């Protein structure tokens, strides 16, 4: 029921975004995937959405949630250089040892459990870290919820005055409505690492200054997190949108 409620809320948001609005000021054409996979995606075995990763023990009784093994693609991720945090259990992949409890970021992290129901960090990494590509297993394609095997998203226009944000390097193609809880973004814990002292915990906040098109839809459960927040996939990268005057950094 919780998943259904999340999905209905996201679909309602999409309907509001799609309703009316003038033509966009800067057309986005030739959409490119925000993830740059280095391995071929594994084929689908069953339609989603289904039980979230982290929703119970596995069938072999190993004490950790079932791992998603289909509809995924391997990325390449590198450790922050230089390291600007003390990392959880000394491993940068698991994010900062201490997470904010107060303020804007603290509110978005309320209730967040980086390992979810996994008993150990090693079991979490066994599930979501791809040793072959030296990076995370990401949900394919582009983190969308799958409905009968098809990604659930729609082209919408972000309007001037809307606030959007992201956790990460700030060089990619993904945004979310500002303030979306971290657990609903279904991101790996490493996205909370500080890569630039100007952006603690990798948090970037923007205001839309000129309308532009995005692909919008619900986020699939992944990394042991519930997901089902709303995400925006952009054509140009975030720095390109800033340079073009579509986005204005607020932090």
UniProtKB/TrEMBL annotation:
Q: Which UniProt keywords apply?
A: Signal
Q: Where is the signal peptide?
A: 1-25
Residue limits of the TNT domain?
157-248
| Keyword Signal part of the UniProt annotation | yes
Q: What PANTHER family does its record include?
A: TNT DOMAIN-CONTAINING PROTEIN
Q: Origin organism of this chain? A: Streptomyces antioxidans
Query: GO terms for molecular function, please?
Result: NADP+ nucleosidase activity
- Asked if the Swiss-Prot or TrEMBL record annotates the protein with the keyword Signal, the reply is yes
Q: What is this protein called?
A: TNT domain-containing protein
Disordered, as annotated region: 39-87
Report biased composition (Polar residues) as residue ranges. Answer: 69-79
């Amino acid at each position: 029921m919780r998943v259904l409620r999340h999905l209905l809320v996201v679909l309602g948001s999409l309907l509001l975004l799609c309703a009316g609005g003038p033509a966009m000021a800067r057309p986005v054409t030739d959409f490119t995937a925000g993830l740059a996979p280095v391995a071929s995606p594994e084929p689908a075995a069953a339609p989603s959405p289904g039980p979230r990763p982290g929703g119970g023990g596995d069938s072999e009784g190993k004490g950790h949630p079932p791992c998603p093994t289909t509809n995924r693609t391997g990325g390449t991720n590198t450790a922050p250089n230089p390291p600007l945090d003390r990392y959880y259990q000394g491993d940068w992949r698991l994010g900062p040892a201490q997470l904010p409890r107060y303020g804007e970021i603290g509110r978005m992290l309320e209730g967040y459990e980086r390992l979810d129901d996994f008993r150990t960090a090693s079991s979490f990494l066994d599930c979501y870290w791809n040793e072959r590509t030296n990076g995370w297993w990401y949900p394919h394609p582009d983190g969308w919820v799958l409905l009968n095997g098809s990604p659930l998203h729609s082209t919408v226009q972000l309007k001037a005055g809307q606030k959007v944000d992201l956790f990460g390097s700030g060089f990619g193609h993904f945004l979310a409505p500002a303030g979306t809880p971290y657990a609903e973004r279904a991101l790996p814990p490493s996205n909370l690492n500080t890569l630039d002292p100007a952006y603690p915990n990798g948090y970037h906040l923007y205001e839309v200054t000129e309308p532009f098109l995005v692909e919008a839809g619900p986020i699939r459960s992944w990394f042991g997190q519930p997901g089902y927040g709303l995400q925006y996939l952009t054509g140009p990268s975030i720095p390109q949108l800033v340079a073009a005057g579509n986005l204005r950094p607020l932090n």
